[in-house]
Amino acid sequence: MITIIAAIAKNNALGKNNELIWHLPEDLKRFKKITSGHYILMGRNTFESIGKPLPNRTTIIITRNKNYFKDGCLIANSLEAAIELANKEEKIYIIGGAQIYKYAIENNLADALDITLVHHQFEADAFFPEIDDTIWKETKREDFKADEKNKFDYSFISYRKIN
After folding, report:
1. pLDDT tier at 86, thresholds 50, 70, 90
2. Which long-range contacts (CB under 8 A, 24 or more apart) does 68-74 make?
3. Helix, strand, or coil here: 150?
């Protein structure tokens, strides 16, 4: 099972200047819970914005640079090669960035989407592709109101590919 996991705004914004635009502690907790113990696949820019391998996960960095190396990480030169490296895993998570998400969706590489929808619009330079409801079916949704720790209303939404 290959799942794309992302936090996106109402206008599909992902980030700006290679950084997240908002801070939702509940989303970060959920991300950690879902991805712990699994392979996470990400582009080099996403890895560099995080700065280090995330604990309790196997990190695969996707880069065209054949000489790229980071301690504690696996390196792949394409998303397909990264998926092949994680092949024996039951659950694989694609965690970004925008180019990797777009490629995975356009090339039909994911089985599910796990989206945190932030109910706000942000100025951004990186965007998530439109979720096509003829391809993806919403299977679960949890809605939350802003609170003292989470500044925006948000929803956790799961989608499965329609076969």
Report:
1. very high
2. 68/44, 73/47
3. coil
φ, ψ at 109 (rounded to 5°): -95, -10
Cα–Cα distance, 19 to 126 (Å, whole number): 10
Determine how β-strand 2-9 pairs with β-strand 112-118.
parallel
**Each residue of 121-140: pLDDT tens digit?**
999 999 999 999 999 999 99
CA geometry: angle at 71 spanning 91 and 105, to 5°?
A: 35
User: In Å, how far are 124, 137, 150, 161 from 128, measured between CA atoms?
Assistant: 11, 17, 21, 17
The architecture in CATH of the region 2-90+98-141 reads 3-Layer(aba) Sandwich (3.40)
Residues 111 and 158: beta-carbon distance below 8 Å? no
Contact 16, 45 (CB under 8 A): no
